[in-house]
Structure formats: structure tokens, C-alpha cells
Design goal:
four-stranded mixed sheet; phage-related protein like fold
Amino acid sequence: MMDTAQVEALSSVLAQYNTGFRKHPRLVKSFEMLGREWTGRSPGEGQPGFGDMAVLELQKALATASGIAGSTVALGDATPIRLENLDGTMTAVLFQESHLKVFASLPRVPSAQPLYQWIREKGYGTERGAAGFREGGAPQVGVSAWERGTILTKYLGVRRGYTHQLLMTGQMGGTLVDPVARENRNGTRQLLAMIERQVVFGDKAIKDADGNEVHYDGIVRQMELSSVAATNIKDLAGRPLNFEDLENAGEQFVTQGKLLNFDMIRTFWKPRVLSDLAKLKLQAERRLMGQDLPEGYRPGTPLNGYHTQHGDFVFDESIFLDPVEDGKPLTDAGDPGSPTAPVAPTTAAAGATAGSKLEAGTYWYAYSSFNDKGESLAVASASGQAAVDTDQITVTGTRTGLSATGFRVYRGTTAVIADMRWIRTIADPGSGTTFTIAVDKNEWRPGHGFGMIINMRDEDVVLAQLAPLIKFPLAIVNTTMEFLLLLYHVLAIKAPERVIVFKNIGLRA
């Protein structure tokens, strides 16, 4: 319990916090301050029964009445009305704008119309003929090769809002945050987080609830559809990344990508991939005698990049290199407005299959449904499916009664859904009751590492923007003031030879 001196000291500190040297708005107020504001007077001026002193007297009365010997009357606990100092700084273990690295690094160009177009020069003419010719004759005709690229701009956005009541409360200093500024910022973070994953894993086959094409293919999908998919998508098949992989990638940029310098190359990796590279480097680290620093020797090998024979790769890590957060399914509750959870899938093994990298073992599968508003809970198969090397496992789901635009498939080695990780996303087939949601050949290994090396020049890869990030107020029809945050753009990989994707990177112990 606080005595009079403690109450006065706390009131003084709070008054300084709200009006004095820290220059914060009046966010934190003691009971005494509230009482003075309400009456305009201080205690002893004919206005007893308010403020900190009144609370203190009430606490004493409660304690005394409850402590009377032989009394059976319990008047309660004074805990709810004790003085509290509420810190105006919110702590949120969430991502910040600086985590959105891939989207921020991509070069941008304006797009004057919804259809973005570019010309790619594919060849100057053959070099396999002969340049010589006889006197009086003429050399052979050279023919350049050109390719026109086109892609439709997509319209991405989120709908947010704040209530008039909260706005008024904030204006009068009754909340710890400015609701308008907070919603603007949180809405922008939500939109950019979705876009950060879209630019990497987007799939235009995932349509909206009305069947409209509203997404664009991300880096992975555009590379899978490119003519260099076989050489520029590196499937490490569970093997950890090493420095030889990076050296080979540097050589490939020079020979296949015809790259003269690496000034604009950026690399992005899941954090664990860089940690494993550091462990590999640490094994070769040696401490040299006589080089102790004043602050002491600090072991470890932080890696900022790698010097290939042909140029430098700068390392950066990203927590957004999974199609969904950490590649995990939802296990506690589905997102508000998401479809209902589907029924359990069934599985069947097809025997040895050409191209399959599935390894012998027993696998459990789960899948969820999603729409524009979010993802449902995942539902697991009733039993595990045994497989031998090079098997393929077909996973069959049910779509009856679901308002889903797509499905996500997760795999694990036990029946625990929380331990499963993403292996595939598929668009809703649009008709039928049962459908194949996955033919698992281990093309994506659950929980493995991922990384990309990209030459960030607008002649190679670009975000074409029809409009920058804009706020679009909506008509006010109730006390919730809604608005849209919009960003019109599309991703175009013009030179896939200058993009290398690493997938299924194994993790070191």
C-alpha cells in the first residue's frame, strides 16, 4: 500500500512525464491529476473525496474492515484501484519496414498504362558463319533477334479503418497512440508484407472469389516458366549451401548472363542459410597470436558477402522467404473471414516415378483452404503414407462447400500439424468434389532453406508502377472511417539469365 509521501512523489513524476522535460503528450495521468482537472481545485479547497488521497483512504478503509478480528465481512481487494503508471510505448514483436528487403531493392519504372511492355534483344545475328567475302562481293546478311514482352499491371491493396469514437479519444489524449497514424502505418505494413511474399512466391493462377486474375507471378514462378529454369533454379536436394555453389553462380552470371560487373547484384537468404555458412567458415577460423584487441577476443565469422573470382556477392537475410510465415500452418484458429477448414485428405503412393526425389519414409500431409481474407485451419490425413525412394505420393482433397480461392499443402514426418511445413500452393480447380491437391515428388522440401541472387538493374528485373502507394478515403456511412491503401504495379523479369534461385537448401546441425 502506498503512503501519502509515495502518492505525492508518484504524482510529481507523472506530472513531469506528461507536461515537462520529456515533452510527451499528456498520455499518463494519475488519479490526482484527473481529479484536479475535473474540479479545477486541489485537495483542501473544499473538494474532498477525489484524487490520489481519496483512493488511499478507500484502500485503508477496505484493509481495516477486512482485517477486523472476528469479522466475517470481506469488503474486497483494493488491487483494481491501486495507482498504475501505464507506459506509452507499445512493445510489439513484429516485423518492421526494414524487414521488407526484396520489394525495397527491386528497381522501379513508371508504367503509363495497365499493359506494361518491353523489348528484349536476344541476338545480334549468328556468330557461327564466316565474316570473309571475295573482292567485289558482299558479306552475309546479319539478322538481329528481338522479343516483345507484355504483362498486365495488377491492383493490390488493403481496406482499413478506425472508429470516430477512438479518434475523439485520441484527440483528447485518452489513448496511448494516434489511431489515424497507427492505422495508416499498420495498413501499410500489412500490404507491403503481402507484397513482399508476392514478389517472390506469387502465382497468377490464384484468382479472386469471382474468378478474376488479380495476382502476378513472382520471381520463383517466372523463373520456373522461363527457358533457363533447368540451369538457373538450383535444387540442392537437402544439401547445405557452400562457397563452391556461390563461386559457380558467379561464373554462371559471367558466361550465361554475359554480366560485366556485379555492382548491382543483391542476394537474399533465409537467416538459417547464412548462419550455416558462418558455421562452415568458423571451422577454418584460427586465432593469431599477438592480435588480442583491447576489448578482448571475439570468436565468430560474420559474413557480409562473398568475393567470387568474377565479382562480389553482398549477403542479406530476409524473414519473408516462405510463402506463409515460417512455412507453418495455422493451428489455433483460422483467419477471420477465411473459408471453413476442409475435410481430411487422403494419400496414395504410386511407386517409383521418373524425376521423383522423394526419399524412403512415412509422411503425413495436411492442407488448408484460403481466400482473399485469410487461411483456414489445416486438417491432417488420418494416417501416414509409407514411401520408398523415388516414390511419388498423390494427396487428394475435397472442395465441397468451401468458398476457397486456393489451398496450401503441408507435410511432416509425424501427425502433429504444428510440426508440418509448406510444400505447395494450388488454385481452386473451380469444379468437382474431390481433386488432386499435390503430387509430391519432393520438389519442395518442408522447412528447408531458400535464397536468390538477382542483378537489380531495370533492364533485367523491374517493378513497373502504374501508381505509387496511395490512400483512398471511402464514403462515411457509419462511425467507422474506412480507407483503402493501394499500390498498382507488376513484376517483370526481363532477363532470367541474371537471376539464380536456390531451393531445398539443407540445414547443418
